[in-house]
Design brief:
The structure is a homodimer of 511-residue chains. Chain A has 511 residues and is mainly alpha-helical. Helix content of chain A is 70%, strand content 1%. Chain A has 19 helices and 2 strands. Chain A has a two-stranded antiparallel sheet with strand order 1-2. In chain A, helix 12 crosses helix 18, helix 13 packs antiparallel against helix 15 and helix 17 runs antiparallel to helix 18. Chain A is globular. The N terminus and C terminus of chain A are likely disordered.
Chain lengths: 511, 511
């Protein structure tokens, strides 16, 4: 029954690409686990938009100050929890750049990490809803400490079994130093939270101050080291840092994880749009626009069974709003996808701009809810169209900013095709600029033609998808027009090698 | 400014792994787009559990027949929409096995496909809620026809630009035949729906019959061809089929897409557990178990500011239920992950069993809701514990069945380590058998000790995670015990090459 080791390894090698057998049992690729973590975290980050969309505002309450204050509070809570969860996600990304491969125990520890992170929005919103009850701050700090503990366990376990580490650290001669460094980073936030929890028992304003510090800690430490460099001159890097794995906060993000997290946000937002239509508003769809009470299915049958057309007519605005909003989310995803196809490395700045863009994408269900309410409350449609345009504008302009930030370091962050002078440069510009321009135009149009604001908005929602479909054609037409107008030499979209000194050229260079 | 083509290609090759430049503009890898599609479809498939969990059942209504009927209807709608969306997802998977690479237009067409698929649950639930209104059937059929049209467009576009096709089809000499075959498969369901839509205008029971046929069409056609083979003997395969790409319904599923879809379901279910706690039930958490009205934050402060311990005590059951349920979902994911690490190819049967398992996983928020209600309604806890145990049992037993189905064709579906006699075989058995056994045990225990049913359930929820952590140790102990009891030769977990004829051996073969 026994065979030489080599034969079995040969058989295994055929299909064993996901298992790394280094004489250690059960070592696995972390790819799927990280994808699952990104999906979970992205959904958790976005769900705090639900209380905002569920804030029932009846027509009489429109201008009630307390309702407006409640809505504003919930929007602020959404933005803050989104930020907090993405900070936790970024920390998770850095942690798993230290850990290269995983085994069963690490997979289970990661699940524990996920569980603790998913409690963050909940404890945070408790803290905000009941600011004077120390319990809220206490629970939030406990949550952060729990996250830190689990992550410290993960670090400890990985360093105990070095074959699990990232190869750069694994073969480094300063592994113990790296371990201390990583643990320090992981436990920094939780340590501050521990102090904040202690303060919460007798002087909680101090707790809030400490927690604000935690959120901005990465940026504060970056600013501090920048100041140090400026004032004390560039220091000699310590001898061991040449070999140390650069896991601090300046390291580029893993592109794959940024994409996975972003996809999760886009997917859950697209789904929330559906939820808003039919799960919580289902019966309203059978009503005529001006009614508010929920009908019996029998009433519905009497009302519509004679006339399909009437029924479809009643659906009309809802479906239009749904299609329009789904198209918006889908096309924003499409632009993101197109951009990141050409990204080699994602810098910290790009990551931050991406988070900001996603935060506004998460606000789209709110925009949808506002615009679908038109059919029922024709007043204030101007306000609502403007809110929607603003949300779409910010979501898309931050996407454009990602590309701009990338262009500043284009040699390392972008592939040649989309750099200045690259053949896809103009198309990328068009894809990313389309929504900012369209929403800005729609906003401006509502200032001039406020009576037709709904029509303008729906026109934008229908025109932009077609513009995307015909994008390449439109861009070529536009460039040809520019040539004719400005008498440029003809530009042919052929591949060009862009030299570093040509970065300042804003127009594609002729080849 | 111009450089020879080769230099630029060399520079591009460095980081251009995601773009395939075959002289065609913008050809891209479909990987991220398919991951996004899987995330979206998995969330859409699972959200129909929300109406079930939101079915408010006050204590007085417990035994109201109409409420029970409503609940049963909603559960049935959930299961059916889950099945329908997974049928659409499977069709999408097959479609993108035909399409190898994508470009911008295909990415946009896929977004349109996603939009139409996301309307499926909505139109289906409309149809079910208002069964006598032809509008419901009509809208559902329109939705299916829309999906078919977009997919036919995708097929037509891909065949028009053959470099986008799967290489096997692209270089086949019978591309036109393949195209017809694919179009036939894609348009089969929509064609039937068209007929059903026509019938819905004057005789809708026929429509329902036709639509049932559509759901079971893949299996019906498989059964028909099996019968044909039996009765008419194996036919000579047509000359061209040797070269044709085998895209019919017997082809194995893409393992990556099965994993991505499953991850989406697990992630959204884990999130729904959070939602059930704090989004829709937030204020209840500050109440003592027997109260039902929502308190003012000021009341809360008065109640708890004096005693943190009391407050935490009030939270206790909710948090325990949350941790327990999150642990269940997380560990079911972990078992799925462990299994699919060792899967080479996923057969149709494995795919079907996976869908069934995921459908029950989607029911876990219902189980959670039932068990978290204990703190408020101590009666009927026995019923609820049993429902929860049953859901967990079915979710996990179908997972075990996937592995069993794989073992039947282990040479092609599994990697050597988990086959009969493989060194991971016993551990895989333990991982997949743990939840079925634990839930069955808990169910049985509630029959004997019905007074302690809650405690039994929580004990199970706490014990199983620890069992997973100590799994390898426990399995080794168990095997050692078996040896002692049954006087077997000592078994050492060393790699063995399992010969095909040794498949019947149920115990690991000594080496």
């Amino acid at each position: 029954m026994s065979r030489p080791q080599t034969q079995e390894q040969a058989v295994d090698a055929e299909g064993d690409s996901s298992l790394y057998r280094n004489d250690e049992e059960g070592t696995q690729s972390s790819h799927r686990m990280l994808g699952f973590s990104d999906a979970l975290l992205s959904i958790i980050a976005t769900v705090m938009i639900l209380p905002v969309t569920h804030t029932e505002i009846s027509p009489e309450q429109q201008f009630d100050k307390s309702i407006q204050k409640l809505l504003a509070t919930r929007i602020a809570v959404y933005l803050m929890t989104f930020l907090i969860v993405t900070v936790a996600w970024a920390a998770h990304t850095r942690l798993f750049q230290v850990v290269g491969k995983i085994d069963d125990t690490l997979a289970l520890l990661n699940l524990a990490c996920m569980m603790t992170i998913t409690l963050l929005p909940y404890t945070f919103s408790l803290m905000v809803t009941f600011p004077d009850v120390p319990l809220g701050i206490f629970l939030f700090c406990m949550c952060v400490i729990a996250i830190g503990s689990v992550q410290a366990l993960i670090v400890g376990y990985a360093f105990h079994f070095p074959h699990l580490l990232n190869p750069q650290i694994q073969y480094s001669t300063h592994r113990a130093l790296s371990r201390q460094h990583v643990l320090r980073l992981v436990l920094r936030g939780p340590a501050l939270c521990f102090v904040a929890a202690v303060f919460s028992l007798f002087f909680f304003p101090m707790s809030y101050l400490l927690m604000v510090t935690i959120i901005f800690l990465p940026h504060i430490s970056k600013a501090i080291s920048w100041c140090k460099d400026k004032f004390m001159g560039p220091r000699e890097p310590p001898a061991h840092s040449v070999e140390s794995f650069n896991i601090d906060l300046h390291a580029p993000l893993s592109k794959e994880r940024v994409e996975a997290f972003s996809d999760g946000v886009y997917a859950i937002v697209a789904t929330l749009l559906i939820l808003d239509i039919w799960l919580l508003d289902k019966c309203h769809l059978f009503m005529l626009p001006s009614e508010d009470n929920v009908p019996d299915p029998k009433d519905v049958q009497e009302k519509f069974s004679g006339s399909l057309v009437t029924a479809l007519g009643a659906y009309g605005p809802q479906f239009l709003a749904y299609f329009g909003s789904f198209a918006t989310v889908g096309l924003l995803w499409f632009a993101h996808h197109s951009l990141f196809l050409h990204v080699r490395k994602a810098t910290q700045t790009m990551g931050l701009l991406n988070i900001l863009s996603l935060a506004f994408v998460g606000g789209l269900p709110l925009a949808y809810q506002q615009t679908s309410a038109f059919a029922r409350q024709p007043r204030d449609e101007l306000e609502r169209v403007r809110v929607s345009c603003a949300i779409i504008f910010f979501a898309s302009i931050f996407q454009f900013a990602i590309w701009t930030a990338a262009l500043l370091h284009q040699a390392e962050t972008l592939q040649p095709a989309v750099r200045f002078g690259g053949r896809e440069h103009a198309f990328m510009f068009a894809k990313l600029a389309l929504y900012p321009c369209a929403s800005l135009l729609a906003f401006a149009a509502t200032c001039l033609l406020s009576r037709f604001s709904t029509a303008i908005f729906h026109l934008m929602q229908i025109a932009v998808p077609f513009a995307f479909l015909l994008l390449r054609l439109l861009v070529r037409l536009a460039l040809a027009t520019l040539q004719v107008l400005w008498g440029l030499r003809p530009w042919h979209p052929q591949p060009c090698l862009v030299e570093p000194e040509a970065q300042s050229q804003l127009l594609p260079a002729p080849c």
